[in-house]
Amino acid sequence: MSDAQLSSPYLSPGKPVGALMLQVVIALLPGTLAYAWFFGPGVLINIVFAVVLALAFEAVILKLRQRPIRPHLSDLSAVVAAWLFALCLPMHSPWWLVAVGIGFTMIAGKHVYGGLGFNPFNPAMVGYVVLLISFPREMTTWFLPIEVSGQSLGLADSLAFTFGAADTTGWDALTAATPLDQIRTAVGQDIPISEARSAPLFGHVGGKGWEWIALCWLLGGIWLLVTRTIRWQIPLSLLLSVVAISALFYGIDSERFASPAFHLLSGAVMIGAFFIATDPVTASTTDTGRLLYGAMIGLLAYVIRTWGGYPDGIAFAVLLANMCVPLIDYYTRPRAYGES
Amino acid sequence: MKPELHRFHGGLRLDGHKAESLAGGLRQASLPRQLVLPLKQHIGDYNKPLVDVGDRVLKGHLIAANSSLICAAVHAPTSGRVSAIEARPVPHPSGFTDTCIVIDVDGKDDAAEPQLRDPSTLAAEAMIQQICRAGIVGLGGAAFPTSPKVSRSRQQGIDTLVINGIECEPYITCDDILMRTDPAGVLRGVGYLQQILAPRVTLIGIEDNKPEALAAMREALLRAPLANTEIIAVPTVYPSGSEKQLIQILTGRQIPHGQLAFDIGFLCQNVGTCRAIAQALEQDQPMISRIVTLSGDNIADPGNWEVRLGTPIRDLVAQAGGYRHAERAHLVMGGPMMGISLAGDEVPIVKASNCILAMTRETIPARPGHHDECIRCGKCVEVCPAQLLPQQLYWHSRARAFDQAQEFHLFDCIECGCCSAVCPSKIPLVQYYRAAKSEVRAARKAQFKSDRARARFEFREKRLALKKQQDEERKRKKREALQRKRARPGQESTVEADPVQAALDRVKARKQARRDEPS
Fold first, then answer.
1. A11, B14: Cβ pair inside 8 Å?
2. What structural domains does chain B harbor?
3. What's the ipTM?
4. Is the pLDDT of residue B300 over 70?
5. Is A189 an 8 Å CB contact of chain B?
6. H or E element: which one contains B64?
7. pTM of the entire structure?
């Protein structure tokens, strides 16, 4: 008995990091399955390939950094980052695209800063933005929902495509820009939104398929809230700010600006609000700070979506907000007990 | 009227583990063969030993007296002979040894003659004197001497007397069992405090996970009513037993930063302390024993014992059936959230020993550096009752950026352990804060010393410079005086200036005179 230098508390500690990450993975399942349902199994290949690559990258980097490998792999942070990254990619992406993105996610997004806990930027968004800037053609080639194109790539075809062995002639008919991108293009060409929305790509509120997937992300997000894996401040302020600013412009001119409902259920707003912006490492940590941080992402994403050069703005908005986190945290320190 | 209860920020709902130690009621621990009494069992200064090796002492004899105001005297818990006054292991977070009076117990338990007085006729000052003579300290665990606290509170004036029967830490049940077995004694002590302090209102807070204690106390209060006294059931949330949090729960007020409870008219006393006050005033019984909870997953028969101070924990463990797994035993004094690890079971029971936890080694926390990294999840922020940002404090403490850590209110941390308990990365956060605090304190001390040394050095330099200046001034004056004398030509001075010439002149004159005489 020579542990006197150890001090309290002597309770078995709370849920480990791996358990928190596992909740995130569970919450990602409904949306991921819906994605595969509407667009075919390509997304699953992306995810599996990205996760395997991420774990391999992380193991190699940990080895090079002379850090223990097993405990760091078992915290599942690499799995979650890779999964989110894969969901951002077009559903059929060549293997090298995934590899380059995961490489940047794990190296430039995470380990150059010292690994989990030290990275100032959301790793998955770092990898995604690198690809978006470097390979715009590959990154904007989105396949149509099965419902619209009437045909889907099976598992074998998807695998063959990913690993570069597929005959891709005639596939152009299966691809198109995302609904969000189409609205932006239409507005740019002075086509009224009501007309643009009559295209078969659009569903009840958002894009066909996409709107249901977004609702599944919402479902997963509610699960995260119920299990107290995340707090409510960031998702709420992000969604509210998107609604507020889109309602404002929709009210001004509903033919040039899409409705709040369309914005909520399009692109990465839902998954961003519950899964990406809530990454604890890179988000603000104070209650007030989280509200500001979420609102900032929502507003920036809307601005980039509507007036910027990219189809969606969540990734850029998250990275820009990441930069402001130290400042936000400093100025939103809560009043301590007894402080006047 | 029922006062409205308030909430404090954060806190945790913990598994109580109270039933294990409550099953057996309150038992009397047997006298050990030897008692080991540390000279300092309280927060404050060391006592002066009054006995020598070989002296026979009686139960209740004063054996070590106060050396200062913040001090609590030590008395012989039973009769016997002083066999040594030497360094022994004591309950200390760093496993230190400290000077102890060792008494070989003779088993007769002969008592010194008590001086009985009717406490209701005593003046407040005399009552505080008696509390001081009895060596009473706060029995909630911190062991701050009671008499200076009460005395200061009386000077400041007390609006609300808060009696703490919360006992929010898991496993500990010594206050619970006391309130069940001697509620009247506790309330008489409360009455004496009211007599000393004349508070406007007295609030007795008891956590609602102790229905038996609540009922016993309420019944005792009905039988012997006290003026403006209220027993309040408080929701069970750790750490509601912390003074600051309890005051906030009962009154909604926070003790302002940098102030103490009596600065805003509050005095908080533990129920055990109240009973000890009653015993001291009514029976002239000094603090020689206390109720100790012995519990934890590694003890065969958990329970509560009335134990003489100085009893080695080993003896108590033996009475509780011993360890379940002796080879994996890990002893903690206090509760699992804020207790301190003990170096071994030869350490004695002291005034602060509200609970001894015998745990298995599996519950030992991670060491600093042997844990995952902070993922900034903010769970610690949610539970912090001091409303701090524990992850920022950790970041700055670990980076040794102590100025920033203090800017984030390092010293407002009450070390309750909530943040460590919820941390998914298993970071021993409180250990980092304790280390940072002690470094800052050491730096402040060093700064104070170096400031004083610099002041002394500068004063000496100044003094020497002044002396040199004065010396030079004196020399200069002397020199000047000399020069002035030389410069001023005077008659007498010329004669004196050339004595040789004068002598020659005299000789010449004499010769001239002689030559003139014969002719």
1. yes
2. 19-108+121-308 (3.40.50.11540), 369-468 (no CATH)
3. 0.84
4. yes
5. no
6. strand B62-65
7. 0.83
